[in-house]
Specification:
The chain is an all-alpha fold. The chain has 2 helices and no strands.
Amino acid sequence: MTKLQPQIPLLYNMVRVAADCYFSTLYNYTLSGQQHIPYQGGLIFAANHISFYDPPVLGARVKRQISY
């Protein structure tokens, strides 16, 4: 069975790409375990909370739409 990735709205995708460029240019960080993120359904992200940038960095790096 093929898993289809849901369509992400254009504005969300544009902001995500811009944020990813911003954070990856100014900060050196890694996001591990992306291969375990399902395309659909619920999931819980557990960040180590080094700073208040965790939510936008996750939103920028993860290839699916996130709501908080």
